[in-house]
Amino acid sequence: MHYTGRFAPSPSGALHFGSLIAATASYLCAKSVNGKWLLRIEDVDKFRIKKHSISSIINTLESYGYQWDDAILYQSQRSEAYQDALDSLGKLAYPCTCTRKFLQKQTPAGTYGYIYAGFCREQISNPDAPQFAMRLRTNNAAIYFNDTLQAPLTQNIESEVGDFIIKRSDKMFSYQLAVVVDDEYQQITEVVRGSDLLDNTPRQLYLQQCLGYQHPSYLHFPTAITANGKKLSKQNHSPEVDPLQKRLTILKTLNFLGQQAPTIDEFSTLEELWDWAIKNWDRDKIPAQMTLSENYPDDTT
Description:
By secondary structure, the chain is α/β, with parallel strands linked by helices. About 30% of the residues lie in helices and about 15% in strands.
């Protein structure tokens, strides 16, 4: 099977160092085996989009030397496909009129947030209802997931998460539905992403099963954190990558991923650095940890 990977940033801000770790890991997993690397813009949630973020993301990736195959896929243009997938679920999908305030009072808190107890499972869809979300009916069965890098994970979605939302009450499709439909559409064979998304995987596997989709394999690399333990993210206001430090930044992503790259003096151009990285990429060297300091290791200068 021909390898196809992807990088799927959300345009909620500029790319930071953690973003480039994800881009580098997914890029090299694909390019090192002559596979395809696709770029997907996860702009399904219009309320999180920041002005000019999409062009900023694309320009940064281009300037840093990432080369994607095929046209960029925009989730904002895929609503019809998501609705078709939701419709195909039949009675597995049902409307939910529970408010956030009600759920906070009535549902227990679990490891992954509030556990939805199926209050609306028997509710019949009412197109005249002012607001309702769509949830996916789960069952009392464990989903076993064997990640390429991290320890195996077992999750009973019904008891640990509950029936989860696939279309929000504001008519936005959920991340879980959109990512599953797009991975199938783009024929993604392996999803390479940060470990902060590891616990989303059982829900995506279950949704793939319900839709009759193929299961890609998954590799969750360590999430980059600051010295005080905060995740590098747009939400935590992590700084944008430096446009004047491209080679150094890519070297830092390689070393974060355990690749033991030479010093910056060994590469006179960004193209030379990428050529070395593709030829020498070893996924087995990625640290099998959930988190790592953004400065790990600290010998890249």
